[in-house]
């Protein structure tokens, strides 16, 4: 982990050195560029008007404003096609199988401009990969995710949002964190979530966000189905500095209650208890800081989570982790670097044999670098490399997976030339 952080620092040092120069050049460019009306900002401003205030405007002015806004519904889609190589597609700790894949990814959205205090949006994302040389256990993988959201903003700073989500996944999962032993397999799972979030402004650039969600997930051929309820609260501090960028700090708490109707509770010694139902409660505290300045985005996310099985404690563990992200998007280039790490410590489960075996421990590390080159408003080239490491003190619980991909993206939007 230390060498990854050092690598990120070394790679990003020249970029950070150019920070000030880029910011100065951007300010000079802004001074030389004529002001252009932003339809999204205009729509957000008009959304603050009440129906009575809108009707009070002269008819000619209302027609001109509607013409500036453009169509009521906006849509867009991006299709990515590429080739990918992985050195361990099954996440095996013993005999990793390397394979090449062809991958297609879809990102699409539909947005209705704010009408009074209301706003609607939705998106559909898909990710499908196929192995050029299929394995007996795996010929490919896919993931689909849909999102619908309705927002109500009665006045600036106040917002209520309802969300509905549905997903389907067919891929290799590592569920070792909640199992009595290492559990990695290809699974098919579908699920849905729905909930509400309420945002209220507070003095001093603060805001409070509270929400509740319910979640149902169904696994084919595995007894991993669950129903989950969640409550969350986030205190946000956000400062907008204009040309100097912005700073956002979030401090949040989340509590989940998960029920597995097809899984049993366990004794302290690791034996299943027939006729019982396994339940988990997870309490999480998370802090996230995001700094935007010119073409730069720097964010750091840290969290701590406690998992409790509401029974003997055999599945109890604590997890700590974080992720550092550095991104630069300017001059038709976009560079993204991410470093993440987490550690899980179990309170009852042990590994090995003997009179005093050590408690189970699991470490996870990820490193990702992505580079994009914009060829035109519609076409983009991209390349990505990543490495994932999972290490346990349980025999056979350690693996490494690397990925390298290269491809092209095509974007469709009515506003593009």
Would you kindly provide a brief summary of this structure?
The chain has 417 residues and is mainly beta. It has one domain (2-36, 71-412): Porin. It contains 5 helices and 18 strands.
Give a written overview of the molecule.
It is a single chain. It contains 5 helices and 18 strands. It is mostly beta strands. The protein has a single domain (2-36, 71-412), classed as Porin (Beta Barrel). The strands form 2 sheets. The protein has a 16-stranded antiparallel barrel. The chain has a two-stranded antiparallel sheet with strand order 10-11. It is globular.
| CATH C-level name | Mainly Beta
Helix content: 10-25%
The helix-strand sequence is HHHHHEEEEEEEEEEEEEEEEEE
Tally of alpha and pi helices: 5
Strand content: over 45%
For the secondary structure, the number of strands is 18
The name CATH uses for the topology is: Porin
Quaternary assembly: single chain
Adjacency order of strands in the biggest sheet: 1-2-3-4-5-6-7-8-9-12-13-14-15-16-17-18
Notable features of this structure?
5 helices; mainly beta; globular; 417 residues; two-stranded antiparallel ribbon; 59% strand; disordered N terminus; 16-stranded antiparallel barrel; Porin; 13% helix
């Amino acid at each position: 982990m230390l060498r990854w952080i050092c690598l990120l620092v070394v790679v990003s040092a020249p970029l950070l050195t150019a920070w000030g120069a880029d910011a100065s050049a951007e300010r000079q460019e802004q001074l030389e560029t004529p002001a252009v009306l932003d339809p999204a900002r205009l729509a957000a401003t008009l959304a603050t008007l009440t129906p009575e205030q809108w009707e009070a405007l002269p008819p000619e002015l209302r027609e001109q404003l509607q013409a500036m806004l453009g169509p009521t519904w906006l849509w867009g889609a991006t299709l990515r096609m590429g080739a990918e190589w992985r050195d361990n597609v099954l996440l095996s700790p013993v005999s990793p199988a390397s394979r090449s894949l062809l991958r297609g990814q879809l990102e699409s959205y539909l947005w209705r401009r704010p009408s009074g205090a209301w706003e609607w949006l939705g998106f559909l994302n898909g990710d499908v990969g196929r192995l050029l040389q299929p394995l007996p256990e795996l010929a490919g993988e896919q993931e689909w995710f849909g999102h619908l959201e309705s927002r109500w903003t009665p006045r600036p700073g106040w917002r209520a949002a309802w969300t509905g989500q549905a997903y389907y996944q067919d891929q290799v999962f590592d569920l070792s964190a909640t199992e009595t032993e290492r559990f990695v397999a290809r699974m098919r799972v579908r699920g849905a979530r729905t909930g509400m979030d309420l945002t209220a402004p507070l003095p001093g650039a603060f805001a409070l966000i509270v929400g509740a969600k319910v979640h149902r997930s169904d696994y084919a051929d595995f007894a991993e189905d669950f129903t989950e309820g969640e409550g969350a609260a986030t205190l946000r501090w956000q400062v907008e500095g204009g040309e100097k960028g912005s700073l956002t700090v979030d401090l949040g708490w989340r509590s989940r209650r998960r029920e597995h109707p097809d899984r049993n509770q366990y004794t302290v010694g690791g034996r299943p208890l027939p006729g019982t139902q396994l339940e988990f409660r997870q309490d999480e505290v998370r802090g996230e800081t995001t700094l935007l300045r010119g073409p730069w985005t720097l964010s750091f996310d840290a969290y701590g989570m406690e998992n409790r099985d509401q029974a003997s404690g055999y599945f109890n563990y604590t997890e700590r982790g974080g992720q550092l992200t550095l991104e630069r998007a300017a001059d038709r280039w976009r560079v993204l670097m991410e470093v993440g790490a987490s550690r899980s410590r179990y309170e009852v489960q042990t590994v090995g044999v003997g009179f005093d075996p050590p408690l189970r421990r699991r470490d996870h590390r990820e490193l990702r670098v992505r580079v994009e080159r914009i060829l035109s408003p519609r076409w983009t080239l991209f390349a990505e490399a990543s490495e994932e490491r999972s290490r346990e003190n349980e025999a056979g619980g350690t693996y490494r997976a690397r990925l390298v991909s290269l491809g092209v993206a095509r974007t469709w939007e009515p506003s593009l030339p």
